[in-house]
From TrEMBL:
This is ABC transporter related protein. It comes from the Archaea. CDD domains: ABC_NikE_OppD_transporters (cd03257). Residues 5-243 form the ABC transporter domain. Signal peptide: none annotated. GO terms for biological process: transmembrane transport. InterPro entries: AAA+_ATPase (IPR003593), ABC_transp_ATP-bind (IPR050319), ABC_transporter-like_ATP-bd (IPR003439), ABC_transporter-like_CS (IPR017871), P-loop_NTPase (IPR027417). GO terms for molecular function: ATP binding; ATP hydrolysis activity. Keywords: ATP-binding, Nucleotide-binding, Transport. Belongs to the ABC transporter superfamily.
Length: 243
């Protein structure tokens, strides 16, 4: 079985030095790799490189058996539809002047040349699965709560049936009760659709809940740890000791 994602010898450098170096890993369908580290360590930048939002890096990202840097713009756009990113601030992915229904259906209408109402009708089982009502999608983003917007974002992302999701601190802005609901929902959708996921967080407990494997990014170094190693590492992390 081929891997959904292969990352080989990935380097990203800014003016002051390496953000990360020699990042190498593979990811299979249905598997979640956690990327853990302190704020500012480069986790989000790594996620953006993997998904193709950052292209100025050294190394190779291979998705679906294709090296993303060797694809034409047209072919990259086709693959890009199968790679989606959930952001820490989901409201930033919605145009405040557009109703949520328009933002959510737009990607499918664009990629598959379908009518908006037809797309919305097809999405109703997914809308129900995330715990929202269809009428809520006729609202504007500022009329929904943070948890509702994050759920609407998941409808938007899963509508394209992605093979890979990069989740960048997707619940860190939500209160604890809503956070648990959204995380459980993400796990359920991932299992149902066999989606590979790179899950970025600085919360050790969330890492343990969501991830099959956990990598730590610290001072540019990327290391995949066994659970026992990560438990020892995160205990020191929580106590604020030098890492």
């Amino acid at each position: 079985m081929s891997h959904v994602l292969k990352v080989r010898n990935l380097f990203k450098t800014y003016g002051h030095g390496d953000i990360f170096r020699d990042v190498t890993f593979t990811l299979d369908a249905g598997e979640t790799l956690g990327v853990f580290g302190m704020s500012g360590c480069g986790k989000s930048t790594l996620g953006r490189c993997i998904i193709g939002l950052e292209k100025n890096y050294r190394g190779d990202v291979e998705f679906n058996g294709k090296n993303l840097r060797r694809l034409s713009n047209k072919k990259f756009r086709l693959e890009r539809a199968l790679m989606q990113m959930i952001f820490q601030h989901p409201e930033m992915s919605f145009d405040p002047k557009m109703r949520v229904i328009d933002s959510v259906t737009e990607p499918v209408c664009y990629h598959f040349r379908k009518d908006r109402e037809d797309v919305f009708s097809e999405l109703k089982p997914l809308i129900k699965a995330v715990g929202l009502r269809p009428d809520q999608f006729y609202s504007y983003p500022n009329q929904l709560s943070g948890g509702e917007i994050q759920r609407a974002m998941m409808v938007k992302i899963y509508s394209l049936s992605p093979k890979l999701i990069v989740a960048d601190e997707p619940t860190s802005m939500l209160d604890m009760s809503v956070q648990a609901q959204v995380l459980n929902l993400m796990k359920s959708l991932q299992k149902e659709r066999d989606t590979a996921c790179v899950f970025i967080s600085h919360d050790p407990e969330v890492m343990r809940i969501m991830c099959d494997r956990i990598a730590v990014l610290e001072k540019g170094e990327f290391e995949i740890m066994c659970k026992r190693e990560f438990d020892d590492y995160s205990e020191n992390f929580h106590e604020g000791l030098p890492l």
